Amino acid sequence: MEPDSRTRWRCRRGMLENDWLLGQFLAQGYAQLDQEGRDAFERLLDYPDNVLLDVVMGRQTTVDDGIARLVPAIRAAAAAETAP
Amino acid sequence: MNLTRRKFDALIIGAGGAGLRAALQLSNGDAKVAVVSKVFPTRSHTVAAQGGVNAALANVLPDSWHWHMFDTVKGSDYLGDQDAIEYMCRAASKVVYELDHFGVPFSRLDNGNIYQRAFGGQSQNFGQTQAARTCAAADRTGHAILHSLYQQNLRARTHFFDEYFAVDLLRDEQGFVLGVLAFEILTGEPIVIEAKTTLIATGGAGQLFRTTTNALINTGDGMAMALRAGVPLEDMEFVQFHPTGIAGRGMLITEGARGEGGFLVNADGERFMERYAPRAKDLASRDVVSRSIATEVREGRGCGRNRDHVLLDLRHLGADAIHHRLPGIREASMTFLGIDPIEAPIPVFPTCHYSMGGIPTNCLGQVVAPVKDTPEDPVPGLYAAGEAACVSVHGANRLGGNSLLDILVFGRAAANHILEYLSENRYHRPLDEGAVERAMARLTRWDRKDPGDGTAERIEPLRRELRKVMEDHCSVFRTDEVMREGVEKVRALRERLNHAVIADHSATFNTARVEAMELENLMDCALATIRSALGREESRGAHSRIDFPERDDQHWLKHSLYSLVDDSLDYKPVRTQPNTVASFPPKERVY
Ligand SMILES: Cc1cc2nc3c(=O)[nH]c(=O)nc-3n(C[C@H](O)[C@H](O)[C@H](O)COP(=O)(O)OP(=O)(O)OC[C@H]3O[C@@H](n4cnc5c(N)ncnc54)[C@H](O)[C@@H]3O)c2cc1C
Fold first, then answer.
1. What average pLDDT score do residues B44-66 get?
2. Phi/psi of residue A46, each to 5°?
3. Which of B44, B88, B209 to mutate to test the pocket of ligand 1 (most atoms within 8 A of CB)?
4. Which domain holds residue A53?
């Protein structure tokens, strides 16, 4: 399923790093999520920007297993875009 | 017109540090306050600030507000207004202690005092030894400030319109600003927010450039609203660039990488900085490195598919040094590029970081414009603070840690003046329905359908082109010829935007419409920036011209004012006279 506009807007963040990471995932990873994954993604979007970035970068761990399962997919989507 | 209408004493557009600091002061002063923000408040761009906020607390090394003032005047390349700079530096300690009181968890010394770190451009004794002036809450100062201020505002019962997009100011025939037309992003429903006073705190316009450290939301909306309301923008040519952003992405690779021995190479594998700065090489000053990179790319020695960047090579430092001394840089490169700098060089290009220019204000936060007889008559009912404003404490160049200070000091000052204004202006002026209709027309314009004759333009390609044009014609490589061409290109893009349509016409969560309106704002800011840059025939601070390499105080110690309504440039003098101390006369800026 493609992300709806509400989810897209929630991916507009205060930091460019998060804009990029979430934007890449929306384009390349989101469609493959099941309902559980989509719910976890919404919970990730509830995090403050710094926490979100730390969790995705692996600097901080989360007790939310659903979110933890998303992290490798988000990182993979970000690195999949070839360098210029 | 049959629209939802709400009335407040004070309206604040923007919920970053500037907007929230002002809102808190107003709510605590018993004004009825509304804050409009296009994203949830704590997702404002202030959250990205990591370094910290400056104040001469003298907790680590001796310091004084007067030394801070000297550094700021010098840093501004003497274009900063010295009355505003004095005001800011004097207020700094108070503002930081207030934050401490609001719950910002500043890093501490063993004795319990706020810890302070040393940043570039900070000195003791008017340019002597290094000072330590920056207060930080670990590496998340912006985040801590934003969250504390938001909590305080909830407690003070500030009214928030979260995820509302402000379209245009409502100004009456007499020039009074009476509020704003906005719409709720969720429902698409327009709303008129009437207010006796309106404060613009919408942040910067970093999205003007293809490579930027700024988040996607930084589209200069408030600056463009001011332009359309007839207020000129001040000093828009001054945009701070950092030489090494990740190419194609924008995030910063700090100077640390070159400090540790990393060097830049072009497509021929040449260490080209040796040619531009034989002595300092890769550690030459920021503007020199930025311009050298841009020159390499322009002359065809760029790297990559599009030959549009250079490479930062760290490989010779070895895996150990990179792991231990540059872990953050390695992590960023791997995450955003998929490149491990131990194995391959990092593609880099100058990245836009901060807008020094903006909506002209005085020290009280009042927007000032040449409305009557002077270039600085207050626009009744209108205020601005933060990166959207130009009270001109940064002049031609901002010092690290001074921007968080600016947003807090002048957010607070604006609120204090608003409280005074409210006590003298108890009633709402009648709304000008013509102004409402004009603003509504800007909104409904996006209901237009594709005529189907192949003339329709689309938002995303126009946005991409604009950012590329600004990067190629108005970033760090500025000459008369390059910018003249740029002005024509920006004008052509603005024209094409008139023919743009969006595919989505649904009411709810129509982000296509938001993005279209953001692009309109960027276009207006782009014209202001490149016209002002073309006008200024000297090099000063962040504005460096290849055809006019020297600072020229005799002709250019003045602020630019770009007015959109008649597409014209004007100038006003720099306020070189501080409030209580002697003026710092212009000197050559050497560090
Ligand atoms: C990566 C990075 C690091 C930085 N680090 C530091 C640092 O260490 N120290 C320092 O002093 N400075 C730093 N800066 C600069 C500093 O962070 C900013 O200048 C400052 O935070 C700007 O604050 P503001 O309140 O003016 O605007 P912002 O925080 O950008 O807030 C703007 C607000 O306006 C709202 N808005 C915008 N347009 C609309 C609209 N049309 N309708 C409704 N709402 C709207 C947004 O939703 C947001 O709430 C840094 C900048 C960057 C990019």
1. 96
2. -70, -20
3. B44
4. 5-80
